[in-house]
Design brief:
With 369 residues, this protein is of the alpha/beta class. The protein has helices spanning 2-46, 58-71, 78-96, 110-119, 131-139, 159-164, 202-207, 209-215, 227-236, 246-252, 299-309, 342-354, and strands at residues 100-104, 124-128, 145-152, 156-157, 171-179, 183-186, 197-200, 220-223, 240-244, 255-258, 268-275, 285-293, 314-321, 329-336, 355-365.
Length: 369
Protein backbone atom coordinates (compact mmCIF):
# COMPACT_ATOMS: atom_id res chain seq x y z
CA UNK A 1 0.00 0.00 0.00
CA UNK A 2 2.85 2.36 0.85
CA UNK A 3 4.45 1.74 -2.50
CA UNK A 4 1.17 2.35 -4.23
CA UNK A 5 0.87 5.70 -2.48
CA UNK A 6 4.39 6.65 -3.52
CA UNK A 7 3.66 5.76 -7.15
CA UNK A 8 0.54 7.88 -7.00
CA UNK A 9 2.49 10.87 -5.73
CA UNK A 10 5.08 10.43 -8.47
CA UNK A 11 2.36 10.27 -11.14
CA UNK A 12 0.67 13.37 -9.69
CA UNK A 13 3.99 15.22 -9.79
CA UNK A 14 4.48 14.22 -13.43
CA UNK A 15 0.99 15.43 -14.35
CA UNK A 16 1.60 18.76 -12.66
CA UNK A 17 4.84 19.18 -14.60
CA UNK A 18 2.95 18.36 -17.81
CA UNK A 19 0.30 20.96 -16.97
CA UNK A 20 3.01 23.56 -16.33
CA UNK A 21 4.58 22.76 -19.70
CA UNK A 22 1.25 23.03 -21.52
CA UNK A 23 0.49 26.31 -19.71
CA UNK A 24 3.80 27.66 -21.00
CA UNK A 25 2.86 26.70 -24.56
CA UNK A 26 -0.57 28.28 -24.18
CA UNK A 27 1.03 31.48 -22.91
CA UNK A 28 3.30 31.69 -25.96
CA UNK A 29 0.49 30.86 -28.41
CA UNK A 30 -1.95 33.39 -26.94
CA UNK A 31 0.78 36.03 -26.99
CA UNK A 32 1.50 35.20 -30.64
CA UNK A 33 -2.17 35.55 -31.47
CA UNK A 34 -2.28 38.92 -29.71
CA UNK A 35 0.71 40.14 -31.73
CA UNK A 36 -1.07 39.08 -34.94
CA UNK A 37 -4.10 41.11 -33.83
CA UNK A 38 -1.89 44.15 -33.36
CA UNK A 39 -0.47 43.69 -36.86
CA UNK A 40 -4.00 43.40 -38.27
CA UNK A 41 -4.81 46.76 -36.68
CA UNK A 42 -1.69 48.32 -38.19
CA UNK A 43 -2.51 46.98 -41.68
CA UNK A 44 -6.13 48.16 -41.51
CA UNK A 45 -5.10 51.61 -40.29
CA UNK A 46 -2.43 51.99 -42.99
CA UNK A 47 -4.83 50.88 -45.74
CA UNK A 48 -7.63 53.19 -44.59
CA UNK A 49 -9.01 56.19 -46.47
CA UNK A 50 -8.95 58.50 -43.47
CA UNK A 51 -12.16 57.17 -41.93
CA UNK A 52 -12.17 54.86 -38.92
CA UNK A 53 -11.36 51.31 -40.06
CA UNK A 54 -13.74 48.51 -39.07
CA UNK A 55 -11.97 46.19 -36.64
CA UNK A 56 -14.88 44.05 -35.45
CA UNK A 57 -16.16 41.68 -38.14
CA UNK A 58 -19.20 39.69 -36.92
CA UNK A 59 -19.11 37.25 -39.84
CA UNK A 60 -15.41 36.48 -39.27
CA UNK A 61 -15.88 35.81 -35.55
CA UNK A 62 -18.92 33.63 -36.24
CA UNK A 63 -16.89 31.55 -38.71
CA UNK A 64 -14.04 31.12 -36.22
CA UNK A 65 -16.33 30.02 -33.39
CA UNK A 66 -18.18 27.57 -35.63
CA UNK A 67 -14.87 26.04 -36.69
CA UNK A 68 -13.75 25.75 -33.06
CA UNK A 69 -16.95 23.89 -32.17
CA UNK A 70 -16.70 21.60 -35.19
CA UNK A 71 -13.03 20.71 -34.56
CA UNK A 72 -13.20 20.49 -30.76
CA UNK A 73 -11.71 17.10 -29.77
CA UNK A 74 -12.96 17.25 -26.15
CA UNK A 75 -13.13 16.52 -23.30
CA UNK A 76 -14.36 20.10 -22.80
CA UNK A 77 -17.87 20.61 -24.27
CA UNK A 78 -17.95 22.60 -27.51
CA UNK A 79 -19.87 25.47 -25.90
CA UNK A 80 -17.24 25.83 -23.18
CA UNK A 81 -14.42 25.71 -25.72
CA UNK A 82 -16.15 28.39 -27.79
CA UNK A 83 -16.60 30.53 -24.67
CA UNK A 84 -12.87 30.32 -23.92
CA UNK A 85 -11.98 31.31 -27.48
CA UNK A 86 -14.52 34.13 -27.34
CA UNK A 87 -12.62 35.65 -24.40
CA UNK A 88 -9.27 35.26 -26.19
CA UNK A 89 -10.76 36.94 -29.27
CA UNK A 90 -12.26 39.69 -27.12
CA UNK A 91 -8.90 40.42 -25.48
CA UNK A 92 -7.12 40.48 -28.85
CA UNK A 93 -9.76 42.77 -30.37
CA UNK A 94 -9.28 45.18 -27.47
CA UNK A 95 -5.64 45.48 -28.56
CA UNK A 96 -6.81 46.48 -32.04
CA UNK A 97 -9.57 48.86 -30.97
CA UNK A 98 -11.24 49.06 -27.54
CA UNK A 99 -14.99 48.93 -28.18
CA UNK A 100 -17.82 50.63 -26.31
CA UNK A 101 -21.07 48.65 -26.31
CA UNK A 102 -24.31 50.23 -25.08
CA UNK A 103 -26.92 47.94 -23.53
CA UNK A 104 -30.32 48.23 -21.89
CA UNK A 105 -29.32 48.68 -18.26
CA UNK A 106 -28.78 49.00 -15.46
CA UNK A 107 -25.67 46.94 -14.66
CA UNK A 108 -26.53 43.35 -13.78
CA UNK A 109 -29.35 42.79 -16.30
CA UNK A 110 -29.73 39.87 -18.68
CA UNK A 111 -29.03 42.32 -21.54
CA UNK A 112 -25.58 42.97 -20.11
CA UNK A 113 -25.07 39.21 -19.82
CA UNK A 114 -26.02 38.91 -23.51
CA UNK A 115 -23.58 41.69 -24.44
CA UNK A 116 -20.73 39.95 -22.61
CA UNK A 117 -21.66 36.57 -24.11
CA UNK A 118 -21.45 38.06 -27.61
CA UNK A 119 -18.47 40.43 -27.28
CA UNK A 120 -16.55 38.93 -24.35
CA UNK A 121 -15.49 40.71 -21.18
CA UNK A 122 -12.88 42.99 -22.77
CA UNK A 123 -15.36 45.57 -24.08
CA UNK A 124 -16.50 48.69 -22.28
CA UNK A 125 -20.19 47.93 -21.63
CA UNK A 126 -22.26 51.06 -21.00
CA UNK A 127 -25.75 50.78 -19.41
CA UNK A 128 -28.59 52.87 -20.87
CA UNK A 129 -31.91 53.63 -19.19
CA UNK A 130 -34.13 52.82 -22.19
CA UNK A 131 -34.09 51.04 -25.55
CA UNK A 132 -34.27 54.29 -27.52
CA UNK A 133 -31.22 55.56 -25.61
CA UNK A 134 -29.26 52.50 -26.77
CA UNK A 135 -30.15 53.34 -30.37
CA UNK A 136 -29.25 57.02 -29.94
CA UNK A 137 -25.89 56.14 -28.37
CA UNK A 138 -24.93 54.08 -31.42
CA UNK A 139 -26.42 56.53 -33.94
CA UNK A 140 -24.39 59.38 -32.43
CA UNK A 141 -21.22 57.25 -32.53
CA UNK A 142 -20.81 57.37 -28.77
CA UNK A 143 -20.91 53.57 -28.86
CA UNK A 144 -19.74 51.16 -31.54
CA UNK A 145 -22.64 48.74 -31.01
CA UNK A 146 -25.79 48.36 -28.94
CA UNK A 147 -27.55 45.34 -27.43
CA UNK A 148 -31.33 45.26 -26.95
CA UNK A 149 -33.84 42.49 -26.18
CA UNK A 150 -36.26 41.64 -28.98
CA UNK A 151 -38.05 38.39 -28.12
CA UNK A 152 -38.75 36.03 -25.25
CA UNK A 153 -39.87 32.44 -25.78
CA UNK A 154 -42.55 32.81 -23.08
CA UNK A 155 -43.80 36.38 -23.49
CA UNK A 156 -43.24 36.98 -27.22
CA UNK A 157 -41.86 40.01 -29.06
CA UNK A 158 -40.70 43.23 -27.41
CA UNK A 159 -42.59 45.79 -29.45
CA UNK A 160 -40.54 48.82 -28.41
CA UNK A 161 -37.47 47.32 -30.05
CA UNK A 162 -39.34 46.51 -33.27
CA UNK A 163 -40.79 50.01 -33.46
CA UNK A 164 -37.34 51.61 -33.18
CA UNK A 165 -36.38 50.11 -36.54
CA UNK A 166 -39.15 52.09 -38.27
CA UNK A 167 -37.20 55.32 -37.79
CA UNK A 168 -33.63 54.36 -36.92
CA UNK A 169 -30.92 54.03 -39.62
CA UNK A 170 -29.10 51.36 -37.61
CA UNK A 171 -28.51 47.85 -38.91
CA UNK A 172 -28.88 44.51 -37.14
CA UNK A 173 -25.35 43.10 -36.96
CA UNK A 174 -25.94 40.00 -34.88
CA UNK A 175 -28.18 38.14 -32.47
CA UNK A 176 -27.68 36.44 -29.12
CA UNK A 177 -29.86 33.74 -27.61
CA UNK A 178 -29.58 33.53 -23.84
CA UNK A 179 -31.17 30.91 -21.64
CA UNK A 180 -32.90 32.84 -18.86
CA UNK A 181 -32.79 31.43 -15.34
CA UNK A 182 -34.58 33.34 -12.59
CA UNK A 183 -33.84 32.94 -8.90
CA UNK A 184 -35.58 34.15 -5.77
CA UNK A 185 -32.90 36.21 -4.04
CA UNK A 186 -32.51 37.93 -0.71
CA UNK A 187 -29.82 39.37 1.55
CA UNK A 188 -27.67 36.71 3.30
CA UNK A 189 -28.91 37.68 6.79
CA UNK A 190 -32.59 37.36 5.89
CA UNK A 191 -34.77 34.30 6.58
CA UNK A 192 -37.49 32.94 4.32
CA UNK A 193 -40.27 33.53 6.86
CA UNK A 194 -39.58 37.27 7.00
CA UNK A 195 -40.26 37.97 3.30
CA UNK A 196 -43.35 40.15 2.83
CA UNK A 197 -42.57 41.72 -0.57
CA UNK A 198 -40.99 40.52 -3.82
CA UNK A 199 -39.51 42.91 -6.40
CA UNK A 200 -38.95 42.17 -10.08
CA UNK A 201 -39.43 43.36 -13.64
CA UNK A 202 -42.88 42.71 -15.09
CA UNK A 203 -41.45 40.26 -17.66
CA UNK A 204 -39.84 38.18 -14.92
CA UNK A 205 -43.03 38.11 -12.89
CA UNK A 206 -44.83 36.85 -16.00
CA UNK A 207 -42.20 34.15 -16.63
CA UNK A 208 -42.42 32.92 -13.01
CA UNK A 209 -46.16 33.40 -12.43
CA UNK A 210 -47.11 29.77 -11.81
CA UNK A 211 -44.21 29.12 -9.45
CA UNK A 212 -44.99 32.26 -7.44
CA UNK A 213 -48.69 31.38 -7.23
CA UNK A 214 -47.76 27.95 -5.91
CA UNK A 215 -44.99 28.87 -3.47
CA UNK A 216 -45.53 32.52 -2.52
CA UNK A 217 -49.24 33.08 -2.96
CA UNK A 218 -50.40 36.21 -1.15
CA UNK A 219 -46.97 37.84 -0.88
CA UNK A 220 -46.95 41.34 -2.39
CA UNK A 221 -45.35 41.59 -5.83
CA UNK A 222 -43.93 44.98 -6.77
CA UNK A 223 -42.90 45.74 -10.35
CA UNK A 224 -39.70 47.76 -10.86
CA UNK A 225 -37.76 48.96 -13.90
CA UNK A 226 -35.30 46.04 -14.02
CA UNK A 227 -34.23 42.90 -12.21
CA UNK A 228 -31.02 44.65 -11.20
CA UNK A 229 -33.08 47.35 -9.49
CA UNK A 230 -35.09 44.61 -7.79
CA UNK A 231 -31.85 43.04 -6.52
CA UNK A 232 -30.63 46.40 -5.20
CA UNK A 233 -33.85 46.92 -3.25
CA UNK A 234 -33.78 43.38 -1.88
CA UNK A 235 -30.30 44.04 -0.61
CA UNK A 236 -31.26 47.27 1.16
CA UNK A 237 -34.86 46.79 2.34
CA UNK A 238 -35.74 44.43 5.22
CA UNK A 239 -38.49 41.88 4.57
CA UNK A 240 -37.97 41.83 0.79
CA UNK A 241 -36.73 39.49 -1.92
CA UNK A 242 -36.09 39.84 -5.65
CA UNK A 243 -36.44 37.76 -8.78
CA UNK A 244 -33.25 38.15 -10.82
CA UNK A 245 -30.42 36.23 -12.44
CA UNK A 246 -26.92 35.17 -11.47
CA UNK A 247 -25.23 38.40 -12.53
CA UNK A 248 -27.48 40.54 -10.31
CA UNK A 249 -27.09 38.07 -7.44
CA UNK A 250 -23.30 38.33 -7.65
CA UNK A 251 -23.31 42.10 -8.11
CA UNK A 252 -25.41 42.74 -4.99
CA UNK A 253 -24.16 39.85 -2.87
CA UNK A 254 -27.52 38.07 -2.58
CA UNK A 255 -28.24 34.45 -1.73
CA UNK A 256 -30.74 32.13 -3.41
CA UNK A 257 -33.88 31.20 -1.52
CA UNK A 258 -34.87 29.20 -4.61
CA UNK A 259 -33.07 28.59 -7.92
CA UNK A 260 -34.38 28.33 -11.50
CA UNK A 261 -37.96 29.30 -10.68
CA UNK A 262 -39.02 30.12 -14.25
CA UNK A 263 -42.19 28.27 -15.30
CA UNK A 264 -40.60 26.96 -18.50
CA UNK A 265 -37.16 25.32 -18.31
CA UNK A 266 -36.47 26.34 -21.92
CA UNK A 267 -37.13 30.03 -21.17
CA UNK A 268 -34.95 31.92 -23.66
CA UNK A 269 -34.57 35.56 -24.65
CA UNK A 270 -33.22 36.71 -27.99
CA UNK A 271 -31.19 39.92 -28.18
CA UNK A 272 -30.14 41.96 -31.20
CA UNK A 273 -26.77 43.60 -31.83
CA UNK A 274 -27.30 46.95 -33.57
CA UNK A 275 -24.60 48.91 -35.37
CA UNK A 276 -23.91 51.13 -38.36
CA UNK A 277 -22.26 48.75 -40.85
CA UNK A 278 -23.60 45.99 -43.07
CA UNK A 279 -22.32 42.48 -42.32
CA UNK A 280 -20.86 40.22 -45.01
CA UNK A 281 -22.07 36.62 -45.40
CA UNK A 282 -20.79 34.15 -42.81
CA UNK A 283 -22.20 31.02 -44.45
CA UNK A 284 -25.04 30.58 -41.97
CA UNK A 285 -27.06 33.78 -41.74
CA UNK A 286 -30.39 35.35 -40.99
CA UNK A 287 -32.00 38.45 -42.54
CA UNK A 288 -34.53 40.89 -41.07
CA UNK A 289 -36.74 43.23 -43.09
CA UNK A 290 -39.65 45.62 -42.57
CA UNK A 291 -42.35 45.56 -45.26
CA UNK A 292 -45.26 47.92 -45.82
CA UNK A 293 -47.90 46.40 -48.14
CA UNK A 294 -50.73 47.99 -50.06
CA UNK A 295 -54.11 47.56 -48.37
CA UNK A 296 -55.80 45.24 -50.86
CA UNK A 297 -57.14 41.66 -50.99
CA UNK A 298 -54.38 39.06 -51.15
CA UNK A 299 -51.67 41.41 -49.86
CA UNK A 300 -50.44 38.96 -47.22
CA UNK A 301 -50.31 36.12 -49.76
CA UNK A 302 -48.30 38.30 -52.16
CA UNK A 303 -45.89 39.05 -49.35
CA UNK A 304 -45.33 35.44 -48.29
CA UNK A 305 -45.53 33.56 -51.59
CA UNK A 306 -42.05 34.55 -52.89
CA UNK A 307 -40.42 33.08 -49.78
CA UNK A 308 -42.34 29.84 -50.29
CA UNK A 309 -41.52 29.59 -53.99
CA UNK A 310 -37.79 30.13 -53.28
CA UNK A 311 -37.79 27.64 -50.34
CA UNK A 312 -36.71 30.32 -47.86
CA UNK A 313 -37.57 29.49 -44.25
CA UNK A 314 -39.31 32.26 -42.32
CA UNK A 315 -38.36 32.27 -38.63
CA UNK A 316 -40.56 35.17 -37.47
CA UNK A 317 -43.31 37.41 -38.80
CA UNK A 318 -44.88 40.16 -36.70
CA UNK A 319 -47.37 42.93 -37.48
CA UNK A 320 -46.89 46.44 -36.08
CA UNK A 321 -49.04 49.59 -36.55
CA UNK A 322 -47.52 51.91 -39.10
CA UNK A 323 -46.63 55.43 -37.88
CA UNK A 324 -47.85 56.85 -41.20
CA UNK A 325 -51.60 56.24 -40.95
CA UNK A 326 -54.58 54.82 -39.06
CA UNK A 327 -55.19 51.08 -39.59
CA UNK A 328 -52.00 50.80 -41.66
CA UNK A 329 -49.52 48.11 -40.71
CA UNK A 330 -45.96 47.02 -41.39
CA UNK A 331 -44.62 43.48 -41.25
CA UNK A 332 -41.41 42.61 -39.40
CA UNK A 333 -39.96 39.44 -40.96
CA UNK A 334 -36.95 37.27 -40.09
CA UNK A 335 -35.83 34.58 -42.51
CA UNK A 336 -32.84 32.33 -43.08
CA UNK A 337 -30.24 33.44 -45.61
CA UNK A 338 -28.20 36.54 -46.47
CA UNK A 339 -29.32 39.42 -48.65
CA UNK A 340 -26.41 38.65 -51.01
CA UNK A 341 -27.69 35.10 -51.63
CA UNK A 342 -29.16 34.77 -55.12
CA UNK A 343 -32.36 33.10 -53.90
CA UNK A 344 -32.88 35.86 -51.32
CA UNK A 345 -32.28 38.53 -53.97
CA UNK A 346 -34.90 36.94 -56.23
CA UNK A 347 -37.49 36.63 -53.45
CA UNK A 348 -36.99 40.21 -52.27
CA UNK A 349 -37.28 41.51 -55.84
CA UNK A 350 -40.76 39.92 -56.06
CA UNK A 351 -41.74 41.34 -52.67
CA UNK A 352 -40.53 44.82 -53.62
CA UNK A 353 -42.62 44.71 -56.79
CA UNK A 354 -45.81 44.41 -54.70
CA UNK A 355 -44.87 46.36 -51.56
CA UNK A 356 -45.14 50.03 -50.77
CA UNK A 357 -41.75 49.88 -49.05
CA UNK A 358 -39.17 47.26 -48.07
CA UNK A 359 -36.48 48.15 -45.56
CA UNK A 360 -33.50 45.84 -45.16
CA UNK A 361 -32.69 45.88 -41.43
CA UNK A 362 -29.66 43.65 -41.72
CA UNK A 363 -28.22 40.27 -42.57
CA UNK A 364 -26.15 38.74 -39.78
CA UNK A 365 -24.74 35.44 -38.46
CA UNK A 366 -27.36 33.07 -37.09
CA UNK A 367 -27.20 33.00 -33.31
CA UNK A 368 -27.29 29.78 -31.27
CA UNK A 369 -27.65 28.99 -27.59
Amino acid sequence: MAGSGKNGEERLSQLREEIDRIDGELLQLISARARCAQEVAEVKTAAGDGSDPVFYRPEREAQVLRRIKAENPGPLPSEEMARLFREVMSACLALEKPMRVAFLGPVGTFTQAAALKHFGHFVNSAPMAAIDEVFREVESRQAHYGVVPVENSTEGMINHTLDMFMTSPLKICGEVQLRIHHHLLTAPDREEGTIARIYSHQQSFAQCRKWLDSHWHGVERVTVSSNAEAARRAREEPGTAAIAGDMAAELYGLTKLAATIEDRPDNTTRFLIVGREDVAPSGKDKTSILVSMRNKPGALYQLLEPFHSHAISLTRIETRPSPTGTWAYVFYIDFEGHVEDETVKSALAQVEAEAVEVRHLGSYPLGVL
